[in-house]
Amino acid sequence: MKKIGYIRATNKEEIEEQSELLIAAGCSKIYVEPKENLNYQSKVKLAQVVEILHCGDILAVTRLSILSSSVQTLLELMFTFEEKHIILQATKQQFISSNSYNLDELLFFLSEFIEDIRVEKQAYGISKAKDECRRLGRPPKLSAKEVLKAIELKQNNTSRQVANRFRVGRSTLLRHIARSKKSA
Predict the structure, then answer these.
(1) How far, in Å, CA of 117 to CA of 68, rounded?
(2) What sequence ranges are listed for the domain Resolvase/invertase-type recombinase catalytic (predicted)?
């Protein structure tokens, strides 16, 4: 019976953290999936690991979300493991496929898996947007020209009057003016 670890690369720190956990869990060998292989069909290292493992062997991961990015592909993998009598262990979640769990515990593992995937996809989307130099969040209510005009109008009017003219809240107007002065 051998215990093999599997890591999906996202960044260097996460790879190091996952390898330390899997080594501590007693893995004799660890396979690292390159960052480029995001979907299940192209996970070359995972396919190699599944071929190497035999009846009674253990595949260890830190979290279930390392294996798959959808519930369907996770279940397909688990059925494959079941057919080959391979034991799946998720070290951080204390999940071992050979143990029996009640419905509440299974739903808990499933909800953790879904949350991990949501967080992962959100982080990926944010990093992709930053790489493309796209602004995150809501667009500003006032353009730079409007802020300059508001600063000019504020000398003779109250903040409330100027805010009403631009159809924004007083606090929004003051926030835009403060950012403008800070960047100048």
Answers:
(1) 9
(2) 3-135
Pairing of β 58-61 and β 29-33: unpaired
Which has the closest alpha carbon to 15: 33, 28, 29, 27? 33
Does the pLDDT at position 41 exceed 70?
no
User: pTM score, two decimals?
Assistant: 0.69
Is the confidence at residue 172, as pLDDT, over 60? yes
Crossing angle of helices 71-84 and 103-131, in 10° steps, is 130
| Among 11, 6, 72, 79, CA closest to 43 | 6
User: What are the two backbone dihedrals, phi and then psi, of residue 88, each rounded to the nearest 5 degrees?
Assistant: -100, 130
| Helices within the chain (DSSP H only) | 12-24, 44-52, 71-84, 103-131, 144-154, 159-165, 170-183
pLDDT digits (tens, 9 = 90+) for 86-96: 999 999 989 99
At 36, is the pLDDT very low, low, confident or very high (cuts 50, 70, 90)? low
Domain coordinates of the chain in residue numbers?
Answer: 3-99, 144-183
Residue pair 149/156 in contact (Cβ under 8 Å)? The answer is no
**Could you tell me which CATH class the domain 3-99 is placed in?**
alpha beta
